[in-house]
Amino acid sequence: MSPLPPDRFTEDETGLTEQTWRELRQIAARYPQARSGLLPMLHLVQSAEGRITPEGIEACAEILGLSAAEVNGVATFYTMFKRKPVGDYHVGVCTNTLCAVMGGDAIFARLKEHLGVGNDETSEDGKITLEHIECNAACDYAPVMMVNWEFMDNQTPESAVQVVDELRAGKEVHSTRGPRLCTWREAERVLAGFPDDRADEGPAAGPASLVGLGIARERGWTAPEAGASKAVQPTEETK
Ligand code: FES
């Protein structure tokens, strides 16, 4: 097979492309200990293959000098790594305690019914994979839904249905925090450490997440210097 030009991103049903092999090696080379690159390498495999494939596991093992069983152990430990093909959009509904009582359970039930799928299943058109997920550290915007790991804050069953319908219709949809939603494979490539230059679209944290920071600034509270070993003494206000 002749080498692919660096800007090509192709799929090859019979195995990983030369570009993917090259990029897997690039990731491994970023770290003083190459095996530290395993997680981003697995994300790249997902981006290229649509899931963790046996070929992807073998490639990571070969590059890192690990056994396939060791790579497999990591790939099966983390729920972000998928053995079944994922749809164009991974929709994760937080059903952890706070989101659940604020409406997450109702959103998940409505989407299951609307899409005709169960947990961790993909709609017939291959567009949406639905999964219930644990706390996304966005409880201040409960109930929260993630699309390819972008936040959709303060959702309702109706807004969630609207989001998946617009995605299935090929419309441009934005996270409630700003960024345009890309496909799951594109998001996986970013998680592998190949930025898509959209990191600055929208704020990183919404107003509700910054309330504590505002209070701290108002009262002149600061964090201890990095490396300071002394415990922070409570003030009259914090006692
Ligand atoms: S419980 Fe849903 S984001 Fe924390």
In short:
By secondary structure, the protein is α+β, with helices and mostly antiparallel strands. The protein is built from eight helices and five strands. A five-stranded mixed sheet has the order 2-3-1-4-5.
Number of strands: 5
Amount of helix: 25-40%
Envelope shape: globular
Overall average residue pLDDT:
89
Provide a count of the helices.
8
- What is the CA-CA span between the terminal residues? 69 Å
Q: Which CATH class of the domain at 89-191 applies here?
A: Alpha Beta
Instruction: Spell out which ligands are present.
Output: FE2/S2 (inorganic) cluster
Low-confidence segments, given as residue ranges, are 1-14
In terms of DSSP E residues, the strand content is: 5-15%
Structural class: alpha+beta
Instruction: Report the C-alpha radius of gyration, rounded.
Output: 21 Å
